[in-house]
Every structure is written in structure tokens, then in C-alpha cells.
Amino acid sequence: MSPRAPGGSATSAAVRWRRLVRARRAEMERLCPGGGALGAPYWDSRARRFAARTAGSATGDPLLSRLRRVARSSTTVLDVGAGPGRFALALAPRVAAVVAVDASPVMGSLLRRAARREGLTNVTTVTGRWEELDVAPVDLGLCSYVLPLVEDAATFLAKLDAASLGDAFVYLSALSADVFSDPFWRHFHGRPRQPGPTYLDAVAVLAELGIGADVEVVEVRVRTRYSTVAAAAKAYRESLLLADTAEVRRELRSLLSRWLVADGDALRPPLRTTPAAIIHWSTRRGGPARSLPPPNR
């Protein structure tokens, strides 16, 4: 049943999604002017750190194994919001071609550099917002941890569906994105953060588009690591939208030193895994979502 807006009128899933994203961005803008615009400049400034953190992390990830079960040597792949190539580079050796789309020019540059380093010649990068690009259809389309940042989820998903001739996958957390920072957010801001949309909201938007999807909730290893408490404090300060002052840095270091746990010569959050949702649908028209084939034993 659709949620009810004030006055009793039904609120569509797409409208609810838009409201959640807008409220979260407005909160970011209020606390950090300019920080609410998560466009290319935002990701350009973080691209190298993001690439270093995600390098090789597709190995062992549940989504990669699901993708490999449907991808063949003749398959063409579209990765929307590919970033520095976490899944694009892992899939490329097994498929015919990969088109990696990202709004950040720096992300695209890092992906191309990594592809050359690995000797991959079948990866093409396209820079721009997915909603504004004209990309030829492929056999398999995917986007990973991108959708909750998109205001118009319906347009985004409809375009992904139209561009995918065989299967489409959307990957996102099945747990609040703020799970690691919520206690600190409440400590510094005195209130919970504005919630973002969830995988259930994504399934509801797809249903409004007439797309029946199957969902698998999987466990994903937490790979976040910090070399020092000071490095962790810097990362948390940015994600918590806090002022860069000596007092804030000192308080964050004190809190994190009691919360992070040692993992070899690094520090990590106290959770080893978190749940994620693999949303999949067949893009064949006129039928229900096709179930994934069983995993190879």
C-alpha cells in the first residue's frame, strides 16, 4: 500500500524517493554549504582516496559472483556510476566489452589508467550524468551503490532498464548508510540524520515502472580500514559534516579510539560484515523477473 501524504492522497514511491533525497541534501547544505551538491566536483576531489579504498574489493563480493553467473564471453556490460572501476575491471576479462559511465572525469581517468595497467582493451569510459547520456544498449546493465544519491530514481531506473537487453542489477546497502556514523552524528548534532531511501524504496519504484524484480540480501565484508586514529578522525569529520577545528579533531580522536578495533596494523569499525541487497530483473518484456541460475559448485 502506498504511504499517505498529508490530506489523505497517496504518495507514489518515486515521489517518496525524491523527498528523501532532497531532505538529506538540504541537511548537508545547511551544515556544510556546498556539500549538498554531490556532482562531479565532489567526487573528483575524493576519487583517488576512493580508488585506493576499493581497489581489488570486487573479489569475493557477492554481486560479482552473481554477475559472473549470467555473463558470458559474448556479453556486453554497462556499469552506471562505475567510479574507478571496481566491478567494471573485475568483469572485463570475462566479457566482450564494458562501458563504464561516471559523472566524474577523475574517476574515468583512474579507471582508464587501471585498465591499461591490467592490459584490458575492452573497457570504454563515458563521462557525464547517466540521465543525460546517449549510450547504446548492452546485454547486462548494473549500478552499484549509486541509486540512493539520485533524486529522480524513476527516470534513472527506466533508462537502465531500456539500456539492458538481458539482465539488470542494482546493488545497494540493506542497512542504513549511516550505521557506522550514527552515534557520532547524534553526539555532535544532537539529532538523527535525515534518512535516505532504502532498497525497499527502490523495489517500490521499479514496481511503479511495471518492473518485477527479485531481491537477494547478502552479507558483504566491511573493508573500511584506517592507518591511524587521526586518519579515521579526518574521514569521520568529513562524513559528519563537522568544522575542521582542533577541538573537533581532538574529540573525534577520543571517541574513535574507544570504538574502532585493531585489525592487524590497521583500525576498522567493529562490524565485520553488513547486509546488502542485490536487486535483479530480466529485461525481457512480457514476463516475470527471471530467477538467477544456481551458483556453480
Layout of strands and helices, then pairs:
Elements: H1 13-31, H2 40-54, H3 62-70, E1 76-80, H4 86-91, E2 97-102, H5 105-117, E3 123-127, E4 138-144, H6 153-163, E5 164-173, H7 182-189, H8 199-208, E6 214-221, H9 229-239, H10 246-259, E7 261-263, E8 266-268, E9 273-282
Parallel strand pairs: 1-2, 1-4, 2-3, 4-5
Antiparallel strand pairs: 5-9, 6-9, 7-8
Structure overview:
The radius of gyration is 20 Å and the shape is globular. The chain has helices spanning 13-31, 40-54, 62-70, 86-91, 105-117, 153-163, 182-189, 199-208, 229-239, 246-259, and strands spanning 76-80, 97-102, 123-127, 138-144, 164-173, 214-221, 261-263, 266-268, 273-282. The protein has 297 residues and is α/β, with parallel strands linked by helices. The strands form two sheets. A seven-stranded mixed beta sheet has the order 3-2-1-4-5-9-6. Strands 7-8 form a two-stranded antiparallel ribbon. The chain has two domains: 13-179 and 191-222 and 274-282, Rossmann fold; 225-268, no CATH class.
User: Helices and strands, in N-to-C order?
Assistant: HHHEHEHEEHEHHEHHEEE
Roughly how many Å apart are the termini?
A: 40 Å
The CATH C-level class name of the largest domain: Alpha Beta
CATH superfamily of the largest domain: Vaccinia Virus protein VP39
Q: Helical stretch count?
A: 10
Sum up the overall morphology in one term: globular
Tally of DSSP β-strands: 9
Helix percentage range: 25-40%
Number of spatially distinct domains? 2
Q: Average pLDDT value?
A: 87
Strand order of the largest sheet: 3-2-1-4-5-9-6
